[in-house]
Amino acid sequence: MNWLNRFLLANWSHILDALLLLMALLCGIQMGESRVQKAWDAEKQTIALAQARQEQHVADVQLTQSQITQKISNEYTKRSKLLADRQPDSRAGGVCNIPATGGRDLRAVPETPARTAPARSDPLLASSGYAGEVKIQRELQEVPCIELQEIQPDKQQIISSRSFGNMVTELVILQDALSTFVANACAKLRAQKSHAAVIQVFLQTNRFRKDLPQYNPSLAVPLPYPTNDSLEVNHWASHLCERMFKSGYQYKKAGIMLSEISPVTRQQGDLLEASPESNNRLMEALDSLNRRYGRGTVKVSTQGAYSQWQMRQERKSPCYTTRWEEVPVV
Fold first, then answer.
1. In sequence order, what E strands does the chain have?
2. How many Å apart are CA 328 and CA 326, to the nearest integer?
3. Would you say residue 18 lies in a domain?
4. Mean pLDDT computed over 97-113
5. Is 259:157 a contact under the CB 8 Å cutoff?
6. What percent of the chain has pLDDT over 70?
7. CATH number, domain at 306?
């Protein structure tokens, strides 16, 4: 035992260090286990919460589906009853309901008018399954089914487009066609006293000719200021057409679309720039001459120079009542 005592007395500091190191190692292991357990518990809680949310979502979807199914069933039952109540009497003849006479003279039977419905909107007419039949029945009973629209609302978009009579491969011909479309669209704008803030130009090849290369570009730009000036809009249409044009394609259709339309009385001014000069009087004179002498009498310089793009109209019916040259001669 003497040697053990001497060993312990000589190395007690090293033994103490080893014990402290062992205690620190055990504490570290315990702390690591506790952290891992906490992380695992948090992960299990997150998974359980996600499962609960998914189950709740499934339950909400099932509840919504059952409510929709119930509404559809109720609506179907309701409309079926309406249709059954509005079926014409089997004893009715023509538009007037004639009761059974039992062999008596029909002239002695007073004629009773057919049952009419108020001119309000009929919910049954909105049903896609019965709209045609119910509309015919209402019109036979002299009940109006289309409401009269006395004031035509202003257009929110104006599209002017045509398919070409022949394939077009040159830029100048496309610009000539677009000039005609711009003139028609701007005339409609001025007719409803509006102006547009966005112009879109599109070109199309013949999608039915699979043997030809296809190219269908489209560009839309906001105008510097809203306008209905044919000259200004035509400038932007020609510029967009030039940007999109690619040689090697045979174009079959082109067109423009004017959008963000607003009344001419509403125009946002610019604090930093002066208001642009308008050609209102020029446009009014152009519209007046075209109304008096026919559309296309007065046009811009880039319009009507080429006829390759125009429709052939080989089977067009003559205008017997509006053109002297097409009046039939006996």
1. 158-168, 194-205, 218-227, 251-259, 262-263
2. 6
3. no
4. 47
5. yes
6. 79
7. 3.30.1490.100
